[in-house]
């Protein structure tokens, strides 16, 4: 990108203040992934209407999909839209699962207020060195940095982890001190995507490893922890998808009760992507199945957007506890 822009110029906020308030208030900031206009409109509408601070986040794939210049103006538009709705909620633009220093630098230059450098698959010392490098760069511009220790099962962007490796609590203090990160993603049994647990007939979703979370909290008291892979995989959507021609047997996520417990702890940021994807897919499938002659995307994407607004409000109000905190 030829010209650079700071997140402050776009009206965005970094995450420092958001996390400090979430930590003392016992709630979590929602981090919703988006790739397109309708998803972003829904996030802004729902968060403005529930007065929830929000992190809008994009993966490397989403950035390529949306176009980095377009993204900058979408983020700026998101802030303006919220203000026109009469809302002053803080909005952060975050890079999800950054995999190189160069990508993080490019995002800082194009107006992101927060970046994740995911070195979780690297040997410990290499993860520290890479994360430290990003922190040193990003902090010059007051951009916050999220690091990760431990590997989630499933697919972390292009890095596939067959099995999860839980975060080792004995490493977190050293990692935070040596890297200077502003928040830390940990692995306590969640995974990305819509198939988080392989359950046998009649089996229940196993509890997350709250014991590991508590051990981490003890070693870095008051430090913001991030939970990835936190979609509930809303069964109403899975059923709609299956009813209208889809095939998503065995899709299952993290029960809301467990997310409520996490949000009340040192977990200050909860990442949600899959639930939004499911809501959109379910509503598009339903709309097209019931209206086979429809070919105006505003009709079926409008339905999807309305459902996303409903979902996000529900999460802010009854799961993360972020409603009214903006
Ligand atoms: O953690 C990964 C996010 O759900 C983003 O996924 O790389 O397909 O955009 P993506
Ligand atoms: P889900 O796949 O559970 O929505 O997780 C998203 C995520 O962690 C993005 O980084
Ligand atoms: Zn993630």
From TrEMBL:
<protein>
    <submittedName>
        <fullName>Fructose-1,6-bisphosphate aldolase, class II</fullName>
    </submittedName>
</protein>
<keyword id="KW-0456">Lyase</keyword>
<feature type="active site" description="Proton donor">
    <location>
        <position position="96"/>
    </location>
</feature>
<dbReference type="GO" id="GO:0004332">
    <property type="term" value="F:fructose-bisphosphate aldolase activity"/>
</dbReference>
<feature type="binding site">
    <location>
        <position position="228"/>
    </location>
    <ligand>
        <name>Zn(2+) 1</name>
    </ligand>
</feature>
<feature type="binding site">
    <location>
        <position position="97"/>
    </location>
    <ligand>
        <name>Zn(2+) 1</name>
    </ligand>
</feature>
<dbReference type="InterPro" id="IPR050246">
    <property type="entry name" value="Class_II_FBP_aldolase"/>
</dbReference>
<dbReference type="GO" id="GO:0008270">
    <property type="term" value="F:zinc ion binding"/>
</dbReference>
<dbReference type="GO" id="GO:0006096">
    <property type="term" value="P:glycolytic process"/>
</dbReference>
<feature type="binding site">
    <location>
        <position position="192"/>
    </location>
    <ligand>
        <name>Zn(2+) 1</name>
    </ligand>
</feature>
<dbReference type="InterPro" id="IPR013785">
    <property type="entry name" value="Aldolase_TIM"/>
</dbReference>
<dbReference type="InterPro" id="IPR000771">
    <property type="entry name" value="FBA_II"/>
</dbReference>
<dbReference type="InterPro" id="IPR011289">
    <property type="entry name" value="Fruc_bis_ald_class-2"/>
</dbReference>
<feature type="binding site">
    <location>
        <position position="148"/>
    </location>
    <ligand>
        <name>Zn(2+) 2</name>
    </ligand>
</feature>
<feature type="binding site">
    <location>
        <position position="118"/>
    </location>
    <ligand>
        <name>Zn(2+) 2</name>
    </ligand>
</feature>
<keyword id="KW-0479">Metal-binding</keyword>
<dbReference type="GO" id="GO:0030388">
    <property type="term" value="P:fructose 1,6-bisphosphate metabolic process"/>
</dbReference>
<dbReference type="Pfam" id="PF01116">
    <property type="entry name" value="F_bP_aldolase"/>
</dbReference>
<keyword id="KW-0862">Zinc</keyword>
């Amino acid at each position: 990108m030829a010209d650079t822009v700071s997140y402050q110029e776009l009206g965005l906020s970094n995450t420092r203040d958001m996390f400090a308030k979430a930590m003392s208030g016992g709630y979590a900031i929602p981090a919703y992934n988006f790739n397109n206009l309708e998803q972003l409109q829904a996030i802004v509408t729902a968060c403005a209407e529930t007065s929830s601070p929000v992190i809008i986040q994009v993966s490397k794939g989403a950035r390529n999909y949306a176009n980095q210049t377009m993204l900058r103006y979408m983020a700026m538009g998101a802030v303006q839209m919220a203000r026109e709705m009469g809302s002053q909620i803080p909005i952060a633009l975050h890079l999800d699962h950054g995999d190189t220093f160069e990508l993080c630098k490019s995002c800082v230059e194009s107006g992101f207020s927060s970046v994740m450098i995911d070195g979780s698959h690297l040997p410990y010392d290499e993860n520290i060195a890479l994360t430290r490098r990003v922190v040193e760069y990003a902090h010059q511009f007051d951009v916050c940095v999220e690091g990760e220790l431990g590997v989630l099962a499933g697919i972390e962007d292009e890095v596939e982890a067959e099995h999860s490796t839980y975060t080792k609590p004995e490493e977190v203090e050293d990692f935070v001190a040596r890297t200077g990160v502003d928040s830390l993603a940990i692995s306590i049994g969640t995974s990305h995507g819509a198939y988080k647990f392989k359950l046998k007939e009649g089996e229940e979703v196993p509890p997350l490893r709250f014991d590991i979370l508590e051990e981490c909290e003890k070693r870095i008291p008051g430090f913001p922890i991030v939970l990835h892979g936190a979609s509930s995989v809303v069964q109403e959507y899975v059923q709609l998808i299956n009813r209208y021609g889809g095939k998503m047997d065995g899709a299952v996520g993290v029960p809301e009760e467990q997310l409520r417990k996490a949000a009340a702890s040192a977990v200050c940021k909860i990442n949600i992507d899959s639930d939004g994807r499911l809501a959109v897919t379910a509503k598009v499938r339903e709309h097209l199945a019931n209206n086979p002659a429809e070919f105006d995307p505003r009709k079926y994407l409008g339905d999807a957007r309305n459902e996303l607004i409903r979902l996000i409000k529900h999460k802010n109000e009854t799961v993360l506890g972020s409603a009214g905190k903006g």
